[in-house]
Amino acid sequence: MAPYPEPDPNLNQNPPPYHDWTVIPDTALLPPPPPLPEDYSPTNNASYDSAARAHEWCAAHPVYTPSRPSANLHALAARGEIALETPPRPLIARGFTLQPIPTSTDIISSSTPRNITTTTTSTSQSQPASTSWLIRTTPAQQDAIITSSLPLYFAATDNPLVGHAHSHDQQKPKTKTIYFEIVVRRIVNESSGVAIGFAAKPYPPWRLPGWHRASIGVHGDDGRRFVNDSWGGRDFVNAFQEGETIGVGMTFEPSPAVAASSIPPYSDGNGSGNGKGKGNTTNSPYTKGNGTGKDNSKGNGKGNGKGNGKGNSTNSPYTKVNTTAFITRQGRTDPRWSWPIDEERDVRDEGVDGLMGEADLYAAIGVFGGVEIEVRFGRDLRWTMDAGI
């Protein structure tokens, strides 16, 4: 009888290892991934020509240096006694109306409303006591942006860190929040809409907020949010509806910002190509960023055109701070309706300079097509800062 063969030492005699699949974390418990940047809007998109002209305009018009307001101007802005400025006359379609909404305590008489198609708003005029404004447009209205006459955020006085460093107040620096609301009274059709946000000046007057340097915007036609986003924005909320009250705000925290992106936050470019166009930054020590816009015509990408090349960061004397943007609906907040300005960005995205506490920021309302909205700054807000975000 043949001897029993010796086992081959090269063979593994052990059974295959057992892997307990239950030790793998359940991804359902993880938070949802951040919304990805989109190339196009599912609703309205701008023409390439509009974006190309905006790129050139941004290159020729540097962002303003932050101003140091008088105590009176700062108090007016804090109370919401702020005028809105009409777009240039060539952008105004017949029937465009921009006028203050008087109250019983207003200085401006209700018997003398202004139709901005014939009267131009000027920042040199005395500030109205009214804190609410009516904007009405017709379906023929092209893309236009309406900005406040005064910043809601003054970098020289409102930056939580810089203002504290120059004061004798030994208390901890305070968070600064800016905010305003609109009431959507009417949206004529699917080719009409409104966008709300904030922007540094100057800004291309035929573009909507969020598409250019130092600006953010939430667009009511597709519900997407834009932060110096020259493409299709990021999914955010449902589209604005008639009868809704929508608010937009920014909160500046008393802590230095730490960059969340792996790319330089400040970049420039001259627009070309498809997507959303980008503008150029400035040599100002206080401002940075790029962007684009959108008009009422159809095209490729919401702003159409991507900038080429990256710029260099500037040395601003105003400290960058952690900044969060948010919206409210019907006076309510929701954790899903806010986002950090310096969030993770795609390599194609431009920076957030000018939005981190180092530049003056104005209220910005974009309109196209036929809409009717009420803009509220001070009184009659459905959400108040005391309510918290």
From TrEMBL:
Region (Disordered): 1-20, 26-47, 103-130, 259-319
Transmembrane recorded as keyword: yes
PANTHER family with a match to the protein in the record: RAN BINDING PROTEIN 9-RELATED
CDD domains referenced in this protein's UniProt entry, alphabetically: SPRY_SSH4_like
Organism of origin: Capronia epimyces CBS 606.96
Location in the cell: Membrane
UniProtKB keywords: Membrane, Transmembrane, Transmembrane helix
Amino acid composition bias (Low complexity), ranges on this chain: 259-269, 279-289
Protein name: SPRY domain-containing protein
Record's GO cellular component terms: membrane
Gly residues: bias regions: 300-310
Biased segments, Pro residues type: 1-18
